[in-house]
Write a structure and sequence with these properties.
The complex is a heterodimer of chains A (about 300) and B (about 375). With about 300 residues, chain A is mainly alpha-helical. Chain A has a single domain, classed as MetI-like (MetI-like fold, Orthogonal Bundle). In chain A, about 75% of the residues lie in helices and about 0% in strands. In chain A, α1 crosses α14, α4 runs antiparallel to α8 and α5 packs across α7. In chain B, β4 and β5 form a beta hairpin. Chain B folds into 2 domains: about 230 residues, Rossmann fold (3-Layer(aba) Sandwich), CATH 3.40.50; about 110 residues, Beta Barrel (OB fold (Dihydrolipoamide Acetyltransferase, E2P)), CATH 2.40.50. Helix content of chain B is about 25%, strand content about 35%. The chains are: A mainly alpha (about 300), B alpha+beta (about 375). At the A-B interface, α9 and α10 of A face β6 and α2 of B.
């Protein structure tokens, strides 16, 4: 009797619990699970944006692995992630460490560094276009003043990705900085005082107290930035249109071109699924690597 | 020479004075407890000695060497923090070794000292655990171990027992007292808990409003409080403080009269006291005895009775309107509303002047 009552109580608890999570689950299913499955299903078809579709199995995927432009886009995107995620993490941390005190000056500088994050990608790229273009751009003017030739950042296949990476770091640095600042402010002051009494210098305190205390935030920052930077699109589209010679063509831009310019949405869906897998693997690898180190 | 000396130390935060001209000396193996209510400046005093707060005026010396300009790590002090401040990502061994590593102590010497401290504090089995795997009492022990291993000249404790439950607090108090007996080093212990102060201290520094009210042995601060503040802060229930007027005594001692007219002859020579100014009488609850109605110095109505097992607090209202508390044995018969007689131990009466300081015979 006792057991039955216990079971029915826990069942009713589960029912009411389910009711609380139901609104989220419905939204999750409709807006995430359904599109994900529908995307996978679409990637198995030869489908036109305005016409019919035909099931072709894994042919789209096979095509992708033979497509030199797609493979270049994958390489470009990986290169871009390597160019942006480590600097975003390290510069974000450095800024947070430098600005982690209560002075009015540091509050002002924090605001300044964060202000770029609220700009739209269009504004950011327009600003950086004015900096980077060889014809009357800020850097070109400065170089000319000291007698040097302008550098064609946006039309040189070697320089274009680093230039987009710098633009992106400038745009996105606010979020990692703020996340690190929030983490730093959670480190108890007593730990620093104990370290001072333990004769720990600034470097030792940073390495032995501060960094271990904010390692979870560092992991979050890296994962968030990996996910965000794999989705490079706007900067590349507005600054270079993926050029020169596809040197700055990222995966998302490739998907956009295939899906919305060539209307081949089955092929675009397959590319999207591959991007999804790459992001998932990259984020999970980082997550498990960090967790393994912690153990 | 005292192991630790503070001379005219002052500290301000902006325009707020947090330490006002504090001077004191602590013997080389003395256990000094700094006692006071929240915000009295006692933690700031400790942090100033440790170097975690700079001072605006005065000098701090340890072993005859001026240290107030030195970095905290170079002062030869170790501190046990209120929240223990164990490094959460280091094992117990790592926590204890951290300070030694930073001053370049050799690996073998570090291991030897850790083993010695672990044996002394009976925590050998905890050395490879992380702080998150320890109970409050174990963390406390590690924090003490981390302090001992550095072999400092002065130990500082910043309310180290306040996070422990009552039973553990009592046991840890005894352990700290034992530790002090064994290592015989100067210890400065900050607390707002008078039981900790009375049980641990060789001397107590009572602080109030950023100044030292009194420095003395536990017995001195209890029996000869220097001010009304000390008289009421030390002892539970607090000392009864009653406004009184002067009266003509029978002898040479100062006689005072309660609001209900009851005369009390103190042990203070009348000639040694100021001729005018308001006076207040201080009587510990144990100096107030209940008697049969009509007996004793005066009569009172019982307002409230607190039975605590081994003793009883009886709250009384005197006929003049004064309220006092009497400490009675376990089996007090008084009930709220009863009329009782009250007798005072005149010899135990304290007199305080208008400035709140105790009045004592000269010499």
């Amino acid at each position: 009797m006792q057991a039955t009552r216990g079971w029915s109580a826990s069942a009713s608890e589960a029912r009411s619990g389910l009711m609380f999570v139901a609104p989220y689950l419905i939204v999750f299913a409709v807006l995430l699970i359904y599109p994900l499955i529908s995307g996978i299903w679409l990637s198995l078809h030869k489908a036109d944006l305005f016409g019919g579709s035909q099931f072709i199995g894994l042919e789209n995927y096979a095509r992708l692995f033979r497509d030199a432009v797609f493979l270049k886009a994958v390489r470009n995107t990986l290169y871009f992630v390597l160019l942006t995620v480590p600097p975003l993490t390290l510069i974000g941390l450095a800024l947070a460490l430098a600005l982690n005190h209560g002075s009015r000056w540091s509050a002002l500088v924090r605001g300044l560094f964060f202000s770029s994050s609220v700009l739209s990608v269009t504004i950011v790229t327009l600003i950086w276009r004015m900096v980077l273009v060889p014809d009357g751009g800020l850097i070109a003017d400065l170089l000319q003043k000291i007698g040097l030739a302008p550098i064609p950042f946006l039309s040189d296949a070697t320089l274009v990705m680093p230039a987009i990476a710098v633009t992106t770091i400038w745009w996105c640095i606010g979020l990692p900085m703020m996340l690190f600042l929030a983490a730093l402010q959670q480190v108890p002051q007593e730990l620093y005082e104990a370290a001072t009494l333990d004769n720990a210098g600034r470097w030792r305190t940073l390495v032995s107290i501060t960094l271990p205390s904010i390692r979870r935030t560092a992991l979050v920052v890296v994962i968030i930035e990996i996910i965000l930077q794999f989705q490079l699109f706007g900067q590349s589209q507005i600054l270079t249109l993926g050029g020169p010679n596809n040197a700055s063509l990222p995966i998302v831009f490739f998907i956009y071109q295939v899906g919305f310019q060539r209307w081949d949405i089955g092929y675009a869906a397959a590319a999207s699924e591959i991007l999804f897998c790459i992001i998932l693997v990259a984020a999970m690898t980082q997550f498990f690597a960090a967790r393994g180190r912690e153990r | 020479m005292g192991n630790l000396a503070l001379r005219n130390v002052s500290k301000r935060f902006g325009t707020t004075v947090v330490l006002d001209d504090v001077s004191l000396e602590i013997g080389a193996s003395e256990f000094l407890v700094v006692l006071g209510p929240s915000g009295c400046g006692k933690s700031t005093l400790l942090r100033a000695i440790a170097g975690l707060e700079s001072i605006d005026a005065g000098e701090i010396e340890i072993d005859g060497e001026r240290v107030d300009q030195l970095a905290p790590g170079q002062r030869g002090v170790a501190m046990v923090f209120q929240g223990y401040a164990l490094y959460p990502h280091m094992s117990v061994r790592g926590n204890i070794a951290f300070g030694l590593k930073n001053i370049g102590t050799g690996r073998t010497e570090i291991e030897r000292r850790i083993a010695e401290v672990a044996r002394m504090l009976e925590m050998e089995h905890l050395l490879d655990r992380m702080p998150s795997e320890l109970s409050g009492g174990q963390r406390q022990r590690v924090a003490i171990g981390r302090a001992i291993v550095k072999d400092p000249k002065v130990f500082m404790f910043d309310e180290p027992l306040s996070n422990l439950d009552a039973a553990l607090r009592s046991r840890t108090r005894q352990e700290i007292a034992n530790l002090h007996r064994r290592i015989k080093k100067a210890m400065v212990f900050v607390t707002h808990d008078q039981t900790e102060a009375m049980t641990l201290a060789d001397r107590i520094v009572v602080m109030n409003q950023r100044r030292i009210e009194q420095i003395g042995t536990p017995l001195q601060v209890y029996r000869q409080p220097a001010t009304v503040f000390v008289a009421t802060f030390i002892g539970s229930p607090a000392m009864n403080i009653l406004p009184v007027t002067r009266c003509a005594g029978t002898g040479t001692h100062q006689c005072v009269r309660l609001a209900d007219g009851t005369p009390i002859e103190t042990t203070l020579p009348e000639a040694s006291l100021p001729a005018d100014g308001a006076l207040r009488l201080g009587l510990r609850p144990e100096a107030v005895r209940l008697t049969a109605p009509g007996d004793g110095d005066t009569s009172a109505a019982v307002e409230f009775v607190e039975f605590l097992g081994d003793k009883t607090h009886v709250y009384l209202s005197l006929s003049g309107g004064d309220r006092i508390v009497a400490l009675h044995g376990a089996a007090a018969q008084a009930r709220p509303g009863d009329s009782v007689g009250v007798s005072f131990d005149h010899a135990a009466a304290h007199l305080f002047g208008a400035d709140g300081r105790t009045l004592r015979p000269p010499g």
